[in-house]
Structure formats: C-alpha cells, structure tokens
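Session log. Operator J.P. requested a structure for one protein chain; no other inputs attached. Running the standard single-chain path with token output.
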Amino acid sequence: MRSGVLLMVLAVTLSALGVGCGDGTETTSDAEVEPSGFGKEVTMPIAAASATLVTPGEDPRAPLHPEVALGTSQQVTLRTEHHIEQQINDKNAGDFSPPAVTIPLTAHTDRSGVDLTLGAATSTDPELTQQLLSADGSHAAFQTSDDGTITWLRLTTTPATPEGARAALERAFTQAVYHSLAFPAEPVGVGAVWTVHQQVSGDIQPSEVNQVTTARLIGRSGDVLTIALDIVQTPKSSAWRLPNNAGSLDIVDYSVHGTGTITVDLGLPMPTAGALDIGGRLTYREPHSEVLLRQDIGTRLQWES
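Structure written below.
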C-alpha cells in the first residue's frame, strides 16, 4: 500500500519542479505545499558560506578578492538541467525531470549589487519556451560580501510571466547561487586548496543539508582564475521533515557528490565559463512502515560567455 506521507513527497516534488498532473485527479493546492514565493517578486536569503584555506599553493601568491568596478557590464549565458526519478518500494520508477533551461543574461553592477536582465530564455520543452517568451526583460539581482559569497538573491519577473516559467527561472537561479564560490582571505597561488562550508536546501531534499566544496586553483592569468570543484553534501539530521507539518521520513541513505571546473574573472560579476555536475541517490523510509522511497537526482550547471 502506498503511504500517504510518501504521496505527499511526490506532490511536493511535482509542485516544486512545476510538473502538472494530467490524470484528472485533484492536484495539491499552493496552500498544501511549501510556496516558493508570492506575486511576481521573490527574495531568497542565502545561508552564509565560510572558506577555510587548506594549502596556499605555489609562489607567487596573492589574495583572490573580487574587485568589480561600479558600472561594469557583462554578458553571459546560464544553462541548467535537472534529473529526478522516484520509486516507492518495487513499483516502477517515475521520471519527473523538468526540461532544461537556457537563460541569456546581461549583468550590470551598481551600488546595490549586481542586476541581471534576462534575455529570451529557451527550454528543451517547446511549451515552456513559449511561456519563457513572456519573461523576456525580467530581472534578477544579488549582493556579495568581500569574499565573493552571495548573501541574497531576488527574482522579479514581468507581470505577463506564467507561473511555470517563473518557477523554472527561480529554480535555475537558486541552483546557480548555491554553487557559487567563496574565496579564502589568505594570499594563494596556483595549486592552492580551500574548502567552503554552507548550508543549502533544495526542492526535493531535506531542508538542512551541509555542503562542503573543495576548490583547487589550477590556473591563473592575471585576474582570470580556473578552479576545479569537488562537492559533497550530507544531511544535518537523520530525518527529512516534510513541509507544512506533513510528517517526516527517516533517511536511510544519502549520497550526493559533484565535480566541475569554473572560470572566473575577479573584475567581472559572473563566471565566464564552466560546468558542474552534482547528483546521487537518496533513500528514505516511512518511520512506521517498511515503505521505501528512492530518488535518483542530478543537476548540471553551465556558464558560457
């Protein structure tokens, strides 16, 4: 028998990923799941990240402080892909992967931070591409601390943007922010290694997850840095508390890992190139039964100038 709690997990997943239910049954309302935002603007505070130097690397060494002049403009394209499969016990697995999204961006710095103007975003799903046309000219904005850490993210879509398009954009930017990079305070050279600790959350993951990113500086030419990334996520507790007091699931297995390479210019607000893949397998058990929920998840993030 399928558990009501596990069905709630499926409903939360589908809502968070913007997947509609087309079988004629009553869908879960916005009041029954954790909302991502109301209206056409949503501001998301980002948990603090801390960088710890492991090894300083070779000489010569210099600090990696971003120095972006006011009025700086940059054009860059963000592409995100998500994969999600869910299976209850030995039932057939369901693929709830949302379509990939490609977002051209124009970044501009001012005294309040970095403003991003969205161009004509596209998707692998023609219907979503059509919806995204209405979001052309929308804005995102973020602010960073001295070490490069993003402290908040705001997304403001045009009044004509449909909910499905807005949710896809929010999901893309949230993933990009959670995989941004903080720099150590100490001077470093090529070969330097540092770790970045941050608490992150996701659409279909436990709300409290510790993320540790190990960064290695593999190349530097002036202010242009090439950095290799290795990411590990672990849950802070042994249970996943579902939104809106819907119960909890015991975490049986949680294995999430990612790797990638990113290129940043300390004089520009956005990465200039790079790709990151992160994913794994998660297994949960309903506390008072033997019902298991298995998830295979994955995210790919790409930056192109």
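Operator note: The CA atoms of residues 87 and 93 lie 4 Å apart.
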